[in-house]
Write a structure and sequence with these properties.
With about 140 residues, the chain is an all-alpha fold. The chain has one domain: de novo design (two linked rop proteins) (Up-down Bundle), CATH 1.20.1440. The protein is about 80% helix and about 0% strand. It has 6 helices and no strands. Helix 2 runs antiparallel to helix 4 and helix 3 runs antiparallel to helix 6. The longest helix is centred in the last third of the chain and has 35 residues.
Length: about 140
């Protein structure tokens, strides 16, 4: 399984996370965060759709039980991220951001930390396992 596209999406998301992190350190950035938030939303929605609809279901069909169990555990631990991000985007209108800048920054730091943790965990744990299985040409299980 080639996961180069997923890694590329992680790099793009990480860059946007970095840009948004920098933006929320400025007292005058309230008007500048909207484009970054929507950029991240587009990236994240596309990435999570690819993972949730294709990557994780494919991994669950791999013959290696350790890989399937690791993927299942990560999916359970990190699954709520999409819902949390959607709620975050809905809660923070441009007007509310301007009014409650410090609260927005605090919540944004938390969502960015969760996103960064998910990216790091997939890159460090799951993707290498899947790549090794692909190189070993392990078959996809019919029973998984």
């Amino acid at each position: 399984m080639d996961i180069g596209h997923l890694r590329s999406q992680h790099q793009e998301l990480s860059q946007t996370v970095s840009e948004l992190s920098s933006a929320i350190t400025s007292d005058r950035a309230a008007q500048n965060v909207a484009p970054l938030r929507w950029k991240m939303a587009r990236q994240l929605i596309g990435h999570l759709a690819l993972e949730d609809k294709i990557f994780y279901p494919t991994v669950q069909r791999l013959a290696d039980k350790h890989i399937r169990d690791t993927a299942r555990r990560l999916e359970e631990e990190m699954g709520p991220l999409a819902d949390a991000f959607s709620a975050y985007m809905a809660r923070w209108t441009d007007e509310r951001i301007a009014r409650e800048w410090l609260s927005f920054c605090a919540e944004t730091r938390e969502i960015l930390k969760a996103l960064t943790r998910r990216i790091d965990t997939e890159e460090r744990l799951l993707y290498p396992l899947v790549e090794r299985a692909s190189r070993a040409n392990r078959p996809i299980s019919d029973t998984a």
